[in-house]
Specification:
Distance between the termini: 36 Å
Largest sheet: 3 strands, antiparallel
Strand content: 15-25%
Oligomer: single chain
Length: 67
Amino acid sequence: MRRRARYGISPQINNQPGTDSRLGELKEEGFLYSKDLGNAKAWRLTDAGQRFLEDTDADFATDLENS
């Protein structure tokens, strides 16, 4: 069963260019998808982004077990 897409909606961040830049990088890497909604932008994880998070969580859990 495919999960329904969930969007995080944020206003365009003019005073935090680092955040907007990083989100843009993650989009270019294929981990995020974005959609403009007026003066806001909606972000959601792609399937590749979800897999990346799952792999990262598994690596983090293994590191905790081994410490």
